[in-house]
Amino acid sequence: MQEKQQEIIAMFDDIAGSYDLANRVMSCGIDIAWRKKACEIAFENLPQERLKSLQIADIACGTGDMISHWQKNAMRKNVCIESIIGLDPSEGMLNVARKKLPQIEFVQCEATKLPLESASRDIISIAYGIRNVVERKRALEEFARVIRVGGILVILEFTKCENPSLLERLMGFYTKNILPFVGGIVSKNYRAYRYLPDSIEEFLTAEKLNEELREVGFSPLFTKAFSANVCTLFIAKRL
Predict the structure, then answer these.
(1) Range with lowest mean pLDDT among 19-33, 40-54, 62-76, 164-178
(2) Contact at 8 Å (CB) between 10 and 91?
(3) Which tens digit of pLDDT belongs to each residue from 140-189?
(4) How many Cβ atoms from other residues are within 10 Å of residue 67's Cβ?
(5) Which of 95, 98, 114, 191 lies most in the core, judged by the most C-beta atoms within 10 Å?
(6) pLDDT score recorded for residue 20
(7) Residues paired with 107 in a beta bridge
């Protein structure tokens, strides 16, 4: 299990330099709207007093994209982020993040072993990362430990679609056949982007992930699929 996790981390180290460009090209920038929506709904589900001094942790932060969105949307909504930290197991991805956001603290660690105090964060986010955590249940338990009661967990992820419609099958064809080809050209690592559709196929449905969230102490508040069920946004409250 740990060996598989290390292989995934090494893969992200290898594609770190081209990761942002590949994401923009493959998603046509649509993921920006998904991230913005995630931030807006998270803020809406926290009481006003918490919005005056938010403590946020972005897990599997990669090159820092989600942190940038937290900052932009906080300014737009007049929300005060007192502290925000990015955590990721890939040193290659963190090196890119540190250049983009030198004022932010970034820490190398796995999602199952967060160097954060219990009940210390109002929001934890993980965008396109939970699918890459081999010991997912342990990671969700860590999130529950770190988030304060009433705090918010935000997950953006590619989810498995059962009984797909015609449009969903077409999107599946794009994900399985076109996307790895495009990602491979941009990153010069076809294997890494072949991993993406394979990992989606092996992942959970939205319903199953919400079940796991309930099991570790979260109450799902909002679940919405985007772009023919390619991506799903989960917002859950810590009980």
Answers:
(1) 164-178
(2) no
(3) 999 999 999 999 999 999 887 766 677 667 666 766 776 667 666 766 77
(4) 25
(5) 114
(6) 80
(7) 87
DSSP the chain: -HHHHHHHHHHHHHHGGGHHHHHHHHHTTHHHHHHHHHHHHHHHTS-TTGGGSEEEEEET-TTSHHHHHHHHHHHHTT--EEEEEEEES-HHHHHHHHHH-TTSEEEE--TTS--S-TT-EEEEEEES-GGG-TTHHHHHHHHHHHEEEEEEEEEEEE---SS--HHHHHHHHIIIIIHHHHHHHHHS-HHHHHHHHHHHHHS--HHHHHHHHHHTTEEEEEEEEETTTTEEEEEEEE-
**Which domains does the chain carry?**
2-9+27-163+204-238 (3.40.50.150)
Token pair, residue 129, equals 């990362």
Residue 136 corresponds to which tokens in the numbers above?
């997912």
Measured between its terminal Cα atoms, the distance across the chain in Å is 30
Q: What is the pLDDT of residue 221?
A: 98
